[in-house]
Design goal:
3 strands, alpha+beta, binds iron/sulfur cluster, 82 residues
Length: 82
């Protein structure tokens, strides 16, 4: 068993990668703290919301917009508090 707090261990499981839904600003995973390439979530791009599109972290489309690191940090911090 690690001496690290559970919160820090959970943060290490999150793998944000470039050029796929996981790193897209429009991807809203079900589990923010444990999101990985297999995580599913809603695509919230305005052109996609009428379709209620569910994607996985490894998907991609040409509407991709990279999520800024500060947004990732804010999402992780918010999720770790809840
Ligand atoms: S489907 Fe496209 S717009 Fe939606 S989250 Fe994935 S890359 Fe982003």
């Amino acid at each position: 068993m690690s001496d690290e707090p559970e919160e820090q261990r959970n943060m290490k499981r999150m793998t944000w990668q470039a050029e796929n839904c996981l790193a897209c600003v429009y991807f809203h995973p079900n589990d923010v703290l444990n999101a990985d390439l297999l995580e599913r979530g809603m695509c919230t791009h305005p052109k996609m919301t009428p379709f209620e599109l569910v994607v996985s972290g490894r998907d991609w489309c040409n509407l991709y917009k990279e999520m800024p690191q500060k947004t990732i940090d804010a999402l992780q911090e918010h999720a770790s508090k809840s």
